[in-house]
From TrEMBL:
Native organism: Paracoccus tegillarcae
Entry-linked InterPro entries: Cupin_2, RmlC-like_jellyroll, RmlC_Cupin_sf
Name of the protein described by the UniProt record: Cupin
A Pfam match: Cupin_2
Domain Cupin type-2 stretches: 69-132
């Protein structure tokens, strides 16, 4: 591929276009300063205002959330995988019907493969604007978001109504549900009881990997982070590995499925037949299937990146309570 072709598959951090009306809690106090980014794929936004940077199907989605201190993302459920790693800031992730079944605090570089099919939320508990990068399973990201009933009720009190088709209507802009379209139904008590509520002890050892542990594991070869034989054993339709200066190699190789490179620290040079590019933390690069490439640090100092690669595994429910 030519440098021009590949440049269209790179999204620079400084070029990210946020959406502040992406979800039903966009007006709810405490959640009304969120910025949502859809980088690769359609994402799960409920707003037509959401900008998609790269629409090429990968078998998974890449997104991001940016939030100021004390800003919270409300409790919701996904039908497929939702993986986050911290790019900037300090974040608390919590889960359960009311968000009190368990929690974990993540620092820059830490990664969390949140169990599929449980209520989850997160908040920036740092002192500055924070950013987390997300990998969502499937090209359609599991068909959207399922909200906890109290989130839908709170949103209605602040002017936002979610239709049964998953589209937001804002009464502050004079919008109403079209004739014949009903609001999104609340989960029933029976449905709520069927949603698992694992404890912190259930989740953290099997679904969280710390940055410094991965740096140690990647001292000779890339550390397998998510996969059938990885540190976090799962098959969500993609695999994730972690590359450092010590495990980077300048010998080109490729994948049978699309890959995405996401630097955490340092600057990285990506070289392929016909071109090269340099990536910085916060940049995202899509590598097409069957393209041989090499990725190595381009400067001195600490350097690490996450790489997600599609697989043939279905992007379905993987959590086993």
């Amino acid at each position: 591929m030519t440098p021009l072709d590949m440049e269209e598959r790179i999204v620079r951090y400084g070029d990210l276009q946020p959406c502040k009306t992406a979800f039903i809690d966009a007006h709810t106090p405490g959640s009304d300063q969120k910025e949502n980014f859809t980088i690769i794929g359609g994402g799960v936004s409920e707003s037509p205002d959401q900008h998609v940077h790269i629409s090429i199907p990968h078998g998974f989605n890449i997104g991001a959330a940016g939030q100021p201190p004390k800003c919270r993302n409300s409790l919701h459920v996904h039908r497929t995988a939702e993986v986050f790693f911290v790019l900037k800031g300090r974040w608390r992730f919590f889960w359960g019907r009311w968000g009190d079944a368990g929690e974990v605090v993540l620092e820059p570089g830490d990664i969390f493969n949140i169990p599929t099919g449980i209520f989850r939320g997160f908040e920036n508990i740092g002192t500055d604007y924070g950013m987390i990068m997300a990998i969502l399973g499937g090209d359609d990201a599991g068909g959207g978001v399922i909200w906890a009933p109290q989130v839908i009720e709170d949103a209605k009190d602040h002017g936002l109504i979610l239709s049964e088709t998953g589209k937001l209507y804002d009464s502050k802009k004079g919008q109403t549900l079209p004739d014949g379209v009903k609001p999104m139904p609340l989960l029933t008590d029976e449905q709520l009881k069927a949603i698992p509520e694992p404890t912190t002890a259930d989740v953290v050892p099997n679904y969280v990997a710390r940055y410094l542990d991965l740096v140690a594991l990647a001292d000779r070869q890339p550390a397998k982070v998510i996969g059938a034989d990885a540190k976090l054993r799962d098959k969500p339709g993609f695999e994730v590995d972690f590359i450092t200066r010590a495990s980077a190699r300048d010998t080109p190789s490729g994948h049978a499925y699309p890959a995405v490179l996401m630097p955490v620290t340092g600057h990285w040079k990506v070289v392929w037949d016909g071109g090269a590019a340099t990536l910085a933390p916060g940049d995202t690069m899509s590598v097409p299937e069957n393209l041989d490439y090499a990725v190595t640090p381009s400067m001195t100092g600490e350097a690490a990146l996450y790489r997600a690669v599609g697989t043939s595994d279905p992007a379905g429910l993987t959590w086993q309570p």
